[in-house]
Amino acid sequence: MDGPPYYIENAEQIAGMFKALAHPIRLTLFAILAQGPRNVNDLVNLIGLPQGSVSHHLKILQGCGLLKSERRRTFVQYALMTPSLTELVSYFDRCSSHFGAIAQDDKL
Question: Which of UniProt's keywords are assigned here (predicted)?
Fold first, then answer.
């Protein structure tokens, strides 16, 4: 019989990714980076947080394997580790729409 699709090692890594994305700022950064690579200054300007805070959250996302970075002259550019991760952002958007519909039904 075949084993489960996710063994403990994979499940722990995936759980770490979801734990990192559970913070609203990190989820926002992840969604922005799904649109394309950005440097820290771009991200600071987009979300309005101090550079130290943005860098801290980027480090967590990179540490769990969601982001990669590359030095470009005087800036470090961040991007999703793999383009297929953009599908995760699309999935979150669909879930958000679904939850909004449920909330509207609950008000009726």
Answer: DNA-binding, Transcription, Transcription regulation
